[in-house]
Design brief:
There is one protein chain. With 469 residues, the chain is α+β, with helices and mostly antiparallel strands. It folds into 2 domains: 81 residues; 305 residues, no CATH class. Helices cover 30% and strands 27% of the residues. Helix 1 runs antiparallel to helix 9. InterPro entries: CD36/SCARB1/SNMP1, CD36_fam. Keywords: Cell adhesion, Cell membrane, Disulfide bond, Glycoprotein, Golgi apparatus, Isopeptide bond, Lipid transport, Lipoprotein, Membrane, Palmitate, Receptor, Transmembrane, Transmembrane helix, Transport, Ubl conjugation.
Length: 469
Amino acid sequence: MGCCNRRCGLIAGAVVGAVVAILGGILIPVGKIIIEGTVEKEAVIEPGTTAYDNWVSAGATVYRQFWLFDLKNPLEVLHYGAAPVVVEKGPYTYRTRYLPKENITFHSNNTVAFLLPIGAIFDPTMSEGSEEDNITSLNLAVAGAYALVPKPLHSVLEILIKSTNSSLFQRRTVKEMLWGYPDPILKETLGLFSPYNGTYDGYYNVFNGKDDISKVSIIDRWRGETKLTFWDDEYCNMINGTDASSFPPFVDNKKPLYLFSSDICRSVSASYEKTVNLKGIDVYRFSLLPSTLASPVDNPDNKCFCKNPETSKNCTLAGVLDIGSCQEGRPIFISLPHFLHGSPSLREDVLGLDPDEEHHKTFFDVEPLTGFTLNFAKRIQVNMMYGPSKVITVLKKVKDYTLFPLVWLNETAMLDDETAQMFQDEIISNINMLEILQEVLLGVGVVVFVVCLVSYCVVRKRHNQSKLA
């Protein structure tokens, strides 16, 4: 009777072990469903969700750091046609995106519209120098007028330049170059980012994800349009992806992320680079590929971004984007800092540049489960083009079209320690706890099942041997 009880107990133990193991196995898909359901609920852009609170106003402090290029040999360039030699000065750091979104309006097609207020507050503690530092740089009015004024009227421009005692280069403070100064030629305020404070980016219309979480934060319209009008091509005019502050949840690192930037007047894609541990949170780092600004020779998709074969060396120039079509015709070109991934000729025409992948690339650190961007560095360089002239005195020694680097900026933000801890407590710890519970149940169940099954076989064998004896 005792032997029978022992065998029955071992059988019962094996059954219990199997049930526990099965429960652990069931928890894996069930737990995944629970987690995904919670994320989907909290990722929707509507009042009361985690996503909405972070979406209305940036959770982390956003900074824009500026490095301006100071020309060291203006006289040699003007009188002898020497290549400009520049040295970067900075950073000059400003706090931006500190204002919450305005005019938030929900629409019946599951989109939400808003305006993004723009402002900048100088932070001297994070800057190398003051806003009153002087910089020798390109004369924005001369370079702009050279491109905008038809060549038959360049004689008129020559008179204006001489009458205002202007030149190809000028000396201005950092504050004037960035935010504006009264220009003697055009009789208006000119600046690299003028006007800025008190202006808006948008209107934006983005999907709120209520009907389809895979579309949350994706831009439906910008300034009321579903596509751009800057480029003479349907592909280049597409508005793809989000504004990069967040992406739809459940990010797949095998697929690129798409984003639209009004700063460069186009959409781009970012590809997975590596997994990074950010304050205890594993994030996917996505970065722009060199092909983003490659010449049409290497990336045919970029052909529609080539606006002027003459200034782009017959569309073979790599690493720059002519955005004059969205800047009222001004000869403004966007690149990565120091012409990273650009044609060698760009750094031969202007000396003193030293591109570095680590310091000059653009990247986004995205938490894969939620799609939230927890850290990013958007790096852009602003350049203007000028060229030779037989009429305009200050351009007579210029040998060829030259892209002059004016400033490069690094817009960056990283979640703070408090937000990182909250993120771990509310999301990561729950996921880890569920995974541990799954592993424990599965492991204990399998061990109990195997031990009981083996013990049962041993007991039964001994019982059979004793009966034969």
